Amino acid sequence: MSSKTVCCSDPSCTEPAVYKIAAPWSNGVFNELKSFGFACADHLGPVFKQAESRRKVYHPTEAETVGVIGIYKYEPGKRDRQLQRLSGLENNYRS
Ligand SMILES: [Zn+2]
Asked: What is the number of other CB atoms lying within 10 angstroms of the CB of residue 72?
């Protein structure tokens, strides 16, 4: 059984993603990480910036809450809540 490889969100890149850019999301019933992008090591900067601007224009419905966007270490097959948040990296890229 092989899981589908998630690639970097940069349009010109075909590398597998090693980072997931996501924000904690809840609709009052379920909690998960809403994904705003995936990045390889080379494109973390631009993909994070794109994700931040998409987060700004994302309007949650009344039932939804969307938290602050963050960088998570992406490991295929792991559940959202098992992913490690890389706060130190976020500080490097936050605008
Ligand atoms: Zn890339």
From this structure: 20
